[in-house]
Amino acid sequence: MTNENPRTPVLSPLAAAQHRAMPFTRLVDCGMDHADARRLLADTTAGMRWQDSATTLAETQLERAGRAEAAGHRTTARQAYRFASAAFMFAQMAYQADTAEKRELYERHTAATMSAAALQSPHTPLMERVTVPHRAGTLGGWLCRPASGKVHATVIVWGGLSGWGAAYLPIAEAYTARGLACLLAEGPGQGESRLAHGLYVDERVTEGFARFVDLVEADQRLDGPIGIQGMSFGGLFAAHLAAADPRVAAVVVNGAPAAPTVPEFRTAREQLAAVVGTDDLGRVAEVMDGLRFDPAKHRIGCPLLLLHGGQDPLARYEDQQPFLQAADPTAATLRSWPDGEHTLYNHAVERDAFTADWFTDQLVLTTGSKNR
After folding, report:
1. Dihedral of CA 47/92/353/240: which sign?
2. Is the pTM of this model over 0.85?
3. Which are the contacts of 34, defined by CB distance < 8 A and separation ≥ 6?
């Protein structure tokens, strides 16, 4: 007698899209507890709403953190707050438009991250919330410094359309372990800069990201040169800033389109419209056209590292090639993983070690740290 295998669940179109956008590899890359990531995917496969499952997981981690903190177990509490922060980050991703629910979930993500930052120890990176004024609002971010306090150089890291700021704490840990400070930026169209302060992406978006360079330069604790790194769509912003701002000493572009367009899929269009801050698709297309990176016009004078995943459905190699064409061939490096997913979720540890070592080579060993 042959045992029949259980029927494979059929996901709803929405759940299928969420699973594609937020696979297990991305969930753990951005700091979710492995067990929580599996639970989230299982819950949503069974029909539970994505935001409901992620929020429940976050709240469970908050309860765990509170018990550990009350018992004096600060390291355990800090870890649980971090897991809660990541779960809230993914909970808000269920909403494309800037709804009240999305804003509340992001506020809870920020609060959980602040709780984790408050539980410092001599062995953990120093972490604090930082802000800088821009136009009529405020840009925010998380500054992470090595536990020793000694900084050789600083790297500013930002995401793209949906993952921002503290989502990249694992990257910051790879950098601080090597004596680099790391500023996890929430630029225009991202995080609280958008949700709380109404700062959106436009043709001059690099002016907003340049404000983080200003912030680093003004901080006397941050010695040495400044590098920048853009993940996903944020890689386009990084390339533009590297071409426009001579203060940028090295740049990493990971999984970005050089010629952005308005997506054909409804959810993707809604996400891009929210980033630009308008439902007018004509205006969205106008901004995308204004952000096109043209190597005939935009030249990158600093060292460039381009990261590429061979299985990335969102950024093909030819989509990123203009960045290489804009750089000095002797100072441009391409690192590709043939089986790599978007922004190399499935090679996160190796990716972060590689970029951290590359930044160390470019900012510390090559240029040397210089006091300002």
Report:
1. positive
2. yes
3. 28
